[in-house]
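About this split. The held-out portion is used to measure sequence recovery: a designer receives only the structure tokens and must propose an amino acid at every position. Recovery is the fraction of positions where the proposal matches the reference. Here is one held-out target exactly as it appears in the evaluation file.
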């Protein structure tokens, strides 16, 4: 498992990106122990093995043992940063990202996104960072009116619900980045991630992660909707690769969709695919009253042509990456 994970980090580190921009520079990242943040840091470690000498400060709710040029600090991004060291690049990934968190802690979801973004932006402005990168989400599009959705397309969000707190606070975070650009001249770029998945030791309540958990346990998959939704997904390897494209090649002020190629499959199709890995079935158990915090969006397919114009090409397919993930959990 560790060898496979290291190989993926090396795969990203070998991409033809302008890595020289990071050489002898410092990066501060929030959410550094999350699904995307962990692999992002491991790619920087790989670049350091190639002699790039990148220093990294990682912020997360719980600290880890520092080493290999990485300093792990315990910090709640809702509080201002008390860090005197200057970071050349600030990458803000920290956020509540699971349906269970949205439903059980809607206030924390909103405040983590808004205050977290504000505190990281203000730190970047104060230290004179070269670039600020915000991790945003497909959720800002709401119910898509276009298919696939480009960066300038926006759908409907019912803001008068607690579930909308995640969507709206991500929208506001993007607006806050633009405000810092205009008022303070801070260079900002935005990575809008589709629904990301991959091997993760942390508990994840997203639909794909729940499907995977049941299949790995040798159980039938329970689908809590009719399964007709069409979503874009992104394997963590391609999510991190896309993030580096945005960081190193994105244009100041621009947002970029990060996704895999849409395969034409519905959520139900993916449930059946994952169930087939374990020789199991899909059981439907749909009760709207029991599914608080679950997205009501049925169409969230993203167009990532803008990111492709920077040179990004997905390294995986969704179906293939789901099978890779299943094998990692089983291995």
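Reference sequence for scoring:
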């Amino acid at each position: 498992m560790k060898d496979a994970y290291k190989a993926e980090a090396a795969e990203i580190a070998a991409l033809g990106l302008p890595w020289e921009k990071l050489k002898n520079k410092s990066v501060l990242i929030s959410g550094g122990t999350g699904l995307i943040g962990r692999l992002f840091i491991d790619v920087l470690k790989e670049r350091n093995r190639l002699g790039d000498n990148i220093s990294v400060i990682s912020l997360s709710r719980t600290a880890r043992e520092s080493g290999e040029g990485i300093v792990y600090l315990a910090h709640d991004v809702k509080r201002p940063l008390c860090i005197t060291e200057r970071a050349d690049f600030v990458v803000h990934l920290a956020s509540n990202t699971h349906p269970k968190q949205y439903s059980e802690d809607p206030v924390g979801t909103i405040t983590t996104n808004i205050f977290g973004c504000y505190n990281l932006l203000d730190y970047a402005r104060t230290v004179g960072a070269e670039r600020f990168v915000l991790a945003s989400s497909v959720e800002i599009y709401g119910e898509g009116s276009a298919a696939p959705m480009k960066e300038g397309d926006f759908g409907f969000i019912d803001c008068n619900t607690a579930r909308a707190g995640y969507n709206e606070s991500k929208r506001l975070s993007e607006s806050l980045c633009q405000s810092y650009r205009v008022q303070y001249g801070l260079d900002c770029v935005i990575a809008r991630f589709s629904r990301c998945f991959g091997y993760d030791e942390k508990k994840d309540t997203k639909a794909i992660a729940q499907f995977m958990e049941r299949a790995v346990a040798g159980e039938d998959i329970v689908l809590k909707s009719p399964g007709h939704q069409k979503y874009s997904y992104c394997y963590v390897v391609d999510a991190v690769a896309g993030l580096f494209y945005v960081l190193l090649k994105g244009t100041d002020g621009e947002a970029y969709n990060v996704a895999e190629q849409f395969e034409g499959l519905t959520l139900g199709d993916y449930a059946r695919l994952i169930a087939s890995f374990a020789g199991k079935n899909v059981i439907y158990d749909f009760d709207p009253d029991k599914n608080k915090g679950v997205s009501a969006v049925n169409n969230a397919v993203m167009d990532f042509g803008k990111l492709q114009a920077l040179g990004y090409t997905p390294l995986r397919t969704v179906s293939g990456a789901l099978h890779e993930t299943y094998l990692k959990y089983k291995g």
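Annotator remark: The chain is about 40% helix and 15% strand.
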